[in-house]
Amino acid sequence: MSISIFILSLKGGIGKSRLSYELSKYISEKKLKRVLLIDNDSLSTLSNVLGHYGDGLLDGFDLRSSLKEIDGIFILKLRNRVHLLDKFYDNERLNQLKLILSKNWDYIIVDNYVGIQEENPIIKAVYEFSQLKIGIFLSDDLSLDSTTEYSNSWNHIDSKHVILVNKVFDSSNIIDRTIINAILNRNVNDYVKGFNVKRTNRIDIS
């Protein structure tokens, strides 16, 4: 079972994909952990920037083209084309995803499309293989209240954190100076005891 971190927001261009990659790289290099990074964005921005031009898992069934190792991180691309995001799943595709999720990852990090809901089949599949579920919600000033409300709609995450981003940010700054670093430097038992919250934490990193 893995520790799963879901990177979420209600606005595009706020840094989800960048944080997802930098966090995956940090865990892989600094913590020497096995990381699966899932590109669940509608435009596959993260995969394309990293040079992963293969087919997405939801476009077909060839795992060799959708799962690539880049910079020591295993990146699973879900889409090559924009589909009706919550209506393009079938059992065969989801079983392929679950096969990948079952491979004893230490961490699963999911870069999600804007406004995804917790009931999404991809999210629910990752939940099945998670011993601890963490939600990181990126927001700016204008969307802070709606992002906090959005985070509260995720009822099955163990801990939720809204990070307020007011400018172009340094990903390593977020990792080093916020609760993310605290999460990564505690074992699961300490985390649950010390960081599990009933309401959303707001963190201003500007």
Characterise this structure.
The chain has an 8-stranded mixed beta sheet, sandwiched between helices. Helix content is 35%, strand content 24%. It has helices at residues 16-30, 45-49, 63-66, 91-101, 121-128, 144-152, 171-177, 179-184, 188-195; strands at residues 2-9, 35-40, 67-70, 73-77, 107-112, 130-139, 159-164, 201-204. Residues 190-206 have low confidence and may be disordered. The protein has one domain (2-204): 3-Layer(aba) Sandwich (Rossmann fold), CATH 3.40.50.300. The radius of gyration is 16 Å and the shape is globular. With 206 residues, the chain is an alpha/beta fold. β6 (130-139), α6 (144-152) and β7 form a beta-alpha-beta unit.
List strands and helices in order, with pairings.
Blueprint: E1 2-9, H1 16-30, E2 35-40, H2 45-49, H3 63-66, E3 67-70, E4 73-77, H4 91-101, E5 107-112, H5 121-128, E6 130-139, H6 144-152, E7 159-164, H7 171-177, H8 179-184, H9 188-195, E8 201-204
Parallel strand pairs: 1-5, 1-6, 2-4, 2-5, 6-7, 7-8
Antiparallel strand pairs: 3-4
Helix pairs in contact: 1-7, 4-5
Organism: Saccharolobus shibatae (strain ATCC 51178 / DSM 5389 / JCM 8931 / NBRC 15437 / B12) (Sulfolobus shibatae)
Domain CobQ/CobB/MinD/ParA nucleotide binding: 5-96
InterPro entries: CobQ/CobB/MinD/ParA_Nub-bd_dom
